[in-house]
Amino acid sequence: MNVSSTPGYDVIGDVHGCAIQLEALLNKLGYQVGESGYYKHPRRQAIFVGDLIDRGDEQLRVLQIVKSMVDAGNARIVMGNHEFNALAYHTEWPSASGKFLRPHDDPDNPWSTKNTKQHAAFLEQVQGDDRCVYLEWFSTLPLWLDLGGLRVVHACWHDDSIKLVESRCGSSAPFTELSHLVAASTEGNPLYEAVETLLKGPEISLVAHGQPEYHDKDGIARDQARVRWWNSEARTLRDIAEMGGRFTTYTGELYPPLPELELARVDRSYVYTAETPVFYGHYWRQGPPKRHHDWTNYTACVDFSAVKGGKLTAYRWSGEKNVNAENYVAAD
Ligand SMILES: [Mn+2]
User: Fold this and answer.
1) How many angstroms does the Cα of residue 242 sit away from the middle of ligand 1?
2) Where is the signal peptide (predicted)?
3) Smallest Cα–Cα separation from 50: which of 24, 20, 87?
């Protein structure tokens, strides 16, 4: 007889509207639809890392599956940047101004067209009462989960950001209050910085370290690189800035390898040094999961690009104190 008191958790990566893959993965993990109509495992709980919505074709079905599991106590979830963006996109502010916390199609704001484009599939698929119900639900989602033996966050576990949210909002789920959503949508507000870090991950300036700008996949010139906060051994710019040869410079050449430049202490402030496993999504890994995908003893990404031709993936955690890549399970 199994007398272990540690609950088992299956941490599931960014779904982005891929309901067929989600149901295949849940079945593979042993979750079944009971009489009540929601997926359930006899001994385990699912944890979603956020980003249920945007991009994919079956967003409403994904929301129905996941919310019914969470409501029934068979799953937990943290907020992703796409749920946060949806809340801001649909919140008119100031009220009756015709403006929104996340701008729509403002001719003075070149980013705002991109905001609508990124959200277009949701706008088409989730409408009317459904939209109200799920936006309301998004506002209740926590930004992180600390379950003792494991931690879950969408993009980056960062103690200072967590403390800031707790001290300002008194909760890990701050957005039931409109004032918190407004503050988190206002550049320069400390809550904005903290929520950006937790949901989108920290970034580092390349130009400030003597490197050129690069052009991202949409052709937009950028100076910030994502910080590989999970790499506790990072000592140099090359270790910590995620460039990976996927980008080009303004002259169209492949971005040069970053130098082995020693980092000042402040630049390592986001690096995760705790010894509790943390699971996160957000980073569009290409599968299958292996060492070079940056899982470490204490950090594991579960986003394997389900909506971009990858496989929806879970990490099956059963109380182990170190991450073990054998415990990744991908949808068939
Ligand atoms: Mn995502």
Assistant:
1) 16
2) none
3) 87
Q: Is residue 176 situated within a structural domain?
A: no
Whole-number Å distance, alpha carbon 220 to ligand 1 midpoint, is 19
The model's pTM is 0.94
For residue 26, is pLDDT > 90? Answer: yes
Residues 212 and 258 in one domain: yes
On whether both 252 and 296 belong to a single domain, the answer is no
Distance 156 CA to ligand 1 centre (A): 13
Indicate if the pLDDT at residue 4 is higher than 60.
no
Q: Which of 230, 246, 268 is the last residue of a domain?
A: 268
User: What mean pLDDT, rounded, does the chain reach?
Assistant: 92
* Residues 217 and 279 both lie in one domain: no
Report residue 285 as tokens. 């890994």
Total structural domains in the chain? 2
Distance of CA 4 to the CA centre of its chain: 30
| 263 shares its domain with 288 | no
Å from CA of 97 to ligand 1 middle: 30
288 cis-preceded (ω within 30 degrees of 0): yes
DSSP-derived letter for residue 264 is P
Q: How confident is the model over 235-282, as pLDDT tens digits? A: 889 889 988 656 777 777 888 888 888 887 667 889 999 999 999 999
* Cα–Cα dist 216/219, whole Å: 5
Whether residue 76 sits in one domain with residue 31 = yes
- Whether residue 298 is found in the same domain as residue 237: no
Q: Are residues 243 and 127 in the same domain?
A: no
Are 259 and 295 in contact by the 8 Å Cβ rule? The answer is: no
The residue assigned the tokens 């956020």 is 50
The sign one gets for the Cα dihedral 51, 55, 58, 59 is positive
CA of 1 relative to ligand 1 center, distance in Å: 39
The confidence score (pLDDT) of residue 2 equals 46
Rounded to the nearest angstrom, the distance between the alpha carbon of 264 and the centre of ligand 1 is 30
* Domain range for 248: 204-268
Whether 296 and 241 map to the same domain: the answer is: no
How far away, in angstroms, is 116 Cα from ligand 1 center? Answer: 16
Whole-number Å distance, alpha carbon 181 to ligand 1 midpoint, is: 20
Ligand 1 centre and the CA of 167: distance in Å?
27
